[in-house]
Design a protein that fits this description.
The structure holds two protein chains of two kinds. Chain A is an alpha/beta fold. Chain A has 16 helices and 14 strands. Chain A starts with 18 loop residues before the first strand and ends with a helix. The model of chain A has no long low-confidence stretch (mean pLDDT 96). Helices cover 50% and strands 13% of the residues of chain B. Classes of the chains: A alpha/beta, B alpha/beta. The complex binds pyridoxal-5'-phosphate (PLP). The site of pyridoxal-5'-phosphate has 21 residues of chain A, from helix 5, helix 11 and helix 15.
């Protein structure tokens, strides 16, 4: 740590073709190449345009409610008895999660693209809700693809999307979860590429999506750095975030990339445990492959078929991960661990009872790991956890788990 | 000269066009595929595009998605598909076979290992739907070193500049995807295709096959009048789906559809 100041900055990635080392890129069928080129050109132009940046910043301030607070969880810190735990409160954003940062950005791109319709994929429904929200505001027709399994376990969000005027399309193929929703969104996009803008919900997919989603979500890390300076007079020992496709994590991590003293820890869905196959932890247990337009760590069998995943949280139930995380893992800059379903549920209950904050089940994975870590750290050390979303949407899932437990008791 | 190039130059002499059926290997059962391939040749196939089943066929409509699911129910792997071609080659030394599918099974097997095994089996070309030229790099060289032609897609949305770029890397033939969309969902618009073929032909010197949305003899003949090859997939796979429990019937039905196309194409 002492020589961290002498360490060199990391290269600015991705490269022009969307590569993060061997990861990322654009592995798509030819029909989409032109649309992705167009999107890349549009984003490259607008991201250098101060008027676009101003519009984005103003929407984040007045519509989303940014900056989100950095909150010292004093009670949880006492409970764990170790490092100080802070939360970056993305759950307080409009629509209740970090997802809105990205959809505000992509909605602006959609507006400038001249396309008339919006589509999105969703797992937990948070990205679907955030997309339906910006579509309502733009007066654009919106279709959200969602796995049939996820529709069942995230009913509240399904109804929210419908109230917002979006059409929720149930995806019945494959494992009926997020990966299949992404397949069908891509298929729809190929078919309607002339008039449709695809608002992709995580830092994965073909170039330029991983880059632009990261850029839009980086507001999280930039605010955290400023707030740590102002409130603590120092930067944390580690920042933590849960990893589905990796958008809330990369938003927190990216601004910290060259602060070598700050550890970056991503927490994947450990499901029923990493010893079996019932989890969604490609960075911990997978290997590199190609899916959904990019090369990244995947959960696959020996023949290269994508495996079904398991997580109690729909938003983490995905066999791939954004390519930048694969790169950060391989170069050793970020660490990736997993929390099981049970650990996440315990953290969900703990935060609700101890701090009066009900986190999303996705987020609960990061909290579980932070609680574990904090115990072994000194009271002068600091952890910042990205509290990516609120848990209202998960009440149904937790209640049914409670119901089953009661039957067993 | 590769088996594919030789075939097209032979067809050129007689003025005939290539009929290129697609079926998914292992559908409805791995034990049926080699017989199916021989049946395709009997019904008039010039080249066989053999689909490698994948769990997440992003560019395919429901017909071929379900074909993949049927094949994967029996765990049809890329290695199995290569073995099927080895077996096919014991009785057929002439008909070119192109493996069509998604990149990840190849990535998992390893490019070098795959290319070597494919060459030994007598596979002639590869068409990886999610491997555009800019992502091929080293791997394209590995395929070429093992005598495999690389067939790339061109779409209605492909710009002229990109067509020229794709032309540089293509061998064997290029595959023009006739519609914006996934496989097996819409019917072909031949006027639109012939306009686009003008664009393509002025930039591509190798043969152009056209696929997506060709589902009967009339459509096949119309496409044959403007293209070098007619690629037909979902129309055949639908017959397999309808007769999955009776493989003999499935093969017979597929042959009927294909023969009708052959006859219609050759009449003009
Ligand atoms: C609250 C919340 N956190 C995290 C995630 C996981 O996505 P990502 O890894 O892209 O942040 C989701 C996805 O639905 C979510 O709703």
């Amino acid at each position: 740590m002492s020589n961290a100041k002498d360490m060199q900055d990391f290269p600015v990635l991705p490269d022009a073709k969307g590569h993060f080392g061997i990861f990322g890129g654009r592995f798509v069928s030819e029909t989409l190449s032109a649309a992705l080129d167009e999107l890349d050109a549009l984003y490259t132009r607008l991201s250098q345009d101060p008027a676009f940046q101003k519009e984005f910043d103003e929407d984040l301030a007045h519509y989303v409610g940014r900056p989100s607070p950095l909150y010292f969880a004093e009670q949880l810190t006492k409970h764990c008895g170790g490092a100080k735990i802070y939360f970056k409160r993305e759950d307080l954003n409009h629509t209740g999660a970090h997802k809105i940062n990205n959809t505000i950005g992509q909605a602006l791109l959609a507006k400038y693209s001249g396309k008339k319709k919006i589509i999105a994929e969703t797992g937990a429904g948070q990205h679907g809700v955030a997309t339906a929200t910006v579509a309502a505001r733009l007066g654009m027709e919106c279709k959200v693809f969602m796995g049939a399994t996820d529709i069942e376990r995230q009913k509240l969000n399904v109804y929210r999307m419908r109230l917002l005027g979006a059409e929720v399309i149930s995806v019945e193929s494959g494992t009926k979860t997020l990966k299949d929703a992404m397949n069908d969104a891509m298929r729809h996009w190929v078919t309607h590429v002339d008039d449709t803008f695809y608002i992709l919900g995580t830092a994965a997919g073909p170039h330029p999506y991983p880059k632009l989603v990261r850029d839009f979500q980086s507001i999280i890390g930039r605010e955290t750095i400023r707030q740590c300076d102002e409130q603590l007079g120092r930067q944390p020992d580690a920042v933590l975030a849960c990893i589905g496709g990796g958008s809330n994590a990369i938003g927190m991590f990216y601004p910290y990339l060259n602060m070598h003293d700050v550890r970056m820890i991503g927490v994947e869905a450990g499901g029923l445990g990493l010893s079996g196959n019932d989890h969604a932890a490609p960075l911990c247990k997978g290997r590199p492959g190609v899916l959904h337009g990019n090369r990244t760590y995947l959960m696959e069998d020996d023949n290269g078929q994508i495996m079904g995943t398991h997580s109690v949280s729909a938003g983490l139930d995905y066999p791939g991960v954004g390519p930048e995380h694969s790169w950060l893992k391989d170069i050793g800059r970020a660490e990736y661990v997993a929390a099981t379903d049970d650990e996440a549920l315990d953290a969900f209950r703990a935060l609700t009872r101890i701090e009066g904050i009900m986190p999303a089940l996705e987020t609960s994975h990061a909290i579980a790991h932070a609680m574990k870590m904090a115990k072994d750290m000194r009271p002068d050390q600091v952890l910042v956890v990205n509290l990516s979303g609120r848990g209202d949407k998960d009440i149904h899932t937790v209640a049914s788990i409670d119901g089953l437990e009661n039957v067993d008791v | 000269m590769s088996r594919i190039a030789a075939l097209f130059s032979e067809l050129n002499k007689t003025g005939k066009k290539a009929l290129i059926p697609f079926v998914t290997a292992g559908d409805p059962h791995p034990s049926v595929t080699v017989d199916m391939m021989h049946g395709l040749v009997e019904a008039g196939a010039d080249i066989i595009e053999l689909g490698v089943p994948f769990s997440d066929p992003m560019a395919d409509g429901p017909t071929i998605q379900l074909a993949c699911e049927r094949a994967l129910m029996h765990n049809t792997s890329l290695r199995d598909v290569i073995s099927m071609v080895t077996e096919f080659r014991t009785k057929n030394a002439n008909t070119p076979v192109v493996l069509m599918g998604y990149l990840n099974p190849v990535e998992a097997m390893g490019y070098e290992t795959f290319a070597k095994a494919a060459q030994q089996a007598g596979i002639d070309g590869v068409l990886m739907v999610d491997m555009p030229p800019e992502e091929s790099g080293e791997n394209a060289k590995i395929f070429a070193d093992h005598g495999l032609d690389i067939i790339y897609l061109i779409a209605p949305t492909t710009t002229d500049a990109r067509i020229s770029e794709i032309a540089k890397y293509s061998t064997g033939y290029v595959y023009y995807v006739s519609i914006k969309g996934v496989t097996g969902t819409a019917a072909i618009d031949v006027d639109d295709v012939s306009k686009n073929l003008e664009r393509i032909r002025s930039r591509v010197s190798i043969p152009v096959g056209v696929g997506f949305g060709i589902n009967n003899g009339e459509a096949a003949a119309a496409v044959a009048s403007v293209a070098d090859g007619v690629i037909v997939g979902s129309a055949l796979v639908n017959k397999i789906a309808a007769n999955a429990a009776q493989p003999d019937v499935a093969i017979a039905e597929v042959k009927t559809v294909l023969s009708e196309m052959r006859t219609a194409m050759d009449k003009q």
